[in-house]
Write a structure and sequence with these properties.
The protein is mainly beta. The protein has helices spanning 15-23, 45-53; strands at residues 4-9, 26-33, 36-44, 60-64, 70-79, 86-93, 100-109, 119-123, 127-132, 141-144, 153-155, 166-167, 174-180, 185-188, 191-194. It has two domains: 4-96, Ribosomal Protein L25, Chain P (Beta Barrel), CATH 2.40.240.10; 101-180, Ribosomal protein L25, C-terminal domain (RNA Polymerase Alpha Subunit, Chain A, domain 2), CATH 2.170.120.
Length: 195
């Protein structure tokens, strides 16, 4: 998947115009930061969602016509409260030569051994905060949890980060644990009954 999206500059729009824009398969967005004026743009929904599936934590380059590519990070995204459709995006413009702080999504893969021992996966966090030069930030981190047993945990400090990427989150932040399932016991007529 390319980390470049072709976008259009747009004028500030009325509600009706924004609705038409969304019907045409485009998402209104704003680009701000890095000491430049805010820019209102629209982004092709299909390409944006494809990039988002890769994690959406890495730098993406917005290309406007033949102008220079603008490196940005996803800052915020609003979804429709009923349909869940993305209705607006905020991008943070970054300087390619300066380190940035961002949240990096974590993708957990595998089925833990502990789930075969009646353990339950408890996910505490699906992202960590990191600092790095924009071009070094991966789209996401993949963590294999298949070897985890009951009572095993993974903290932020256990992550293997790419070279040049530093952890900003607390190293003690819990990400995922395998906890013992609780067997509920009820007392009925003086006898314990498990359910």
């Amino acid at each position: 998947m390319s980390n470049q999206i072709l976008v259009n500059v747009r004028e500030k729009s009325s509600r009706a115009q924004l609705k038409q824009l969304r019907k045409a398969g485009r998402i209104p967005a704003v680009v701000f930061g890095a000491g430049s004026e805010n820019a209102t743009i629209d982004v092709p929904k299909k390409e944006y969602l494809q990039w988002l599936k890769t994690g959406g934590g890495s730098v993406v380059y917005l290309q406007v016509n033949n102008e220079d590519k603008v490196p940005v990070l996803l800052e915020d995204m609003q979804r429709h409260p009923v349909t869940g459709e993305v209705i607006h995006i905020d991008f943070l413009r970054v300087n390619a030569k300066e380190e940035v702080r961002t949240r990096l999504p974590i993708v957990f893969t595998g089925t833990p051994i502990g789930t075969k021992e009646d353990g339950i996966i408890q996910t505490d966090s699906t992202s960590v905060e990191v600092t790095a030069l924009p071009h070094l930030i991966p789209a996401s981190l993949t963590v294999d949890i298949s070897g985890m047993k009951v009572s095993d945990t993974i903290q932020a400090s256990d992550l293997k980060l790419p070279e040049g990427v530093q952890l900003t989150s607390s190293p003690n932040e819990y990400l995922v644990s395998i906890v013992a399932s609780q067997v509920a016991a009820t007392v009925v007529d003086g006898e314990e009954v498990t359910s």
